[in-house]
Amino acid sequence: MLLKAISKDYLRSLVVSLIAVVIVVPLFCVCIIIPLGLVNQPNTSIWVLIVPAVGFLATLLGGGLGFFALSLYRRKHWLDGIFTPLGLQGSLYMLTGRQYRGAIQGREVSIRFYRGPTLDLYISAPLQTRLSITHKDMASPALARMFGHQAMSPDIPGVNDLNIFAMDENWARSLLAGAEAQSIIRRLLDAGASWALLRQIHFQPEALYLRLYRNKNLFKYDITPEEGRQWLNDLLALARVAESLPAPQTTAEESSLEQMARTGSMAKTSTYVIIAVIIGTLVGIPLCGVAITALILLLDK
């Protein structure tokens, strides 16, 4: 399945590149190549080169910014329709994503949709332990490294086909032995099954969250308002079941990295880097055009 997803990633990149070539190459020929040929003709003004070149740069920048703005608007409209009716406040996340924060049933809720595509749905659940659950064919080596060992063998009917990584294995067995917990976990691991390659449930100190990651389709992925509401309700129900059990005996404190990921503060630094790259691109391309034009004028003399 992973190889299939990787091949889809390459195919998606190839399609986007081909579309860019089909648009940019003819435009480059008309605005740059042809004027370069004409400017060498007798009595031809240098403006024959300058005006199309400026137009070429303006078209690229304007088209790119226009497409970027349209994508942001469509994503905002789509995701706001899912999560704002639940009482959550939406905002921009890492320039291209969206995040939603608020409280539901007395618990802090944080939802983020960003590049991947990745959807993280966090709810507060101060159990002070770590537990990760996923399908056997969807576990990443990073999970094993995080827990320092391979998946546990719960030997519990109904969950033997799952990969389970637990800090406190006895507590995990108690949770997974319950019919209600098993039913909720099954529903959450089927969330976004039409598009999400990786579907994982994670308990960490201070939070419980569902992660849907990577698109196994070429382009299409979707989340309906009903799905978003159901996923949050299931997370809330799973947290209640987990908290009704005796507390885990093996516990941990939330790391600074986990806190940054949960609260979304990690995105601030990333946003500054992205903004710097965009500004550098917007300023650098015109400056290159000016430098090339100045060089041509000097050589023409």
SSE layout and pairings?
Layout: H1 2-39, H2 47-83, E1 89-93, E2 97-104, E3 107-114, E4 118-124, E5 131-135, H3 141-147, E6 162-166, H4 169-176, H5 179-189, E7 196-204, E8 207-215, H6 225-244, H7 256-263, H8 266-300
Characteristics:
8 helices; 8-stranded antiparallel beta sheet; 54% helix; 301 residues
What does this entry look like structurally?
The chain is of the alpha+beta class and 301 residues long. The chain is 54% helix and 19% strand. It has 8 helices and 8 strands, in the order ααβββββαβααββααα. The chain has helices at residues 2-39, 47-83, 141-147, 169-176, 179-189, 225-244, 256-263, 266-300, and strands at residues 89-93, 97-104, 107-114, 118-124, 131-135, 162-166, 196-204, 207-215. An 8-stranded antiparallel β-sheet has the order 1-2-3-4-8-7-5-6, with helices on both faces. β2 and β3 (107-114) form a beta hairpin. The longest helix has 38 residues, at 2-39. The model has no long low-confidence stretch (mean pLDDT 81).
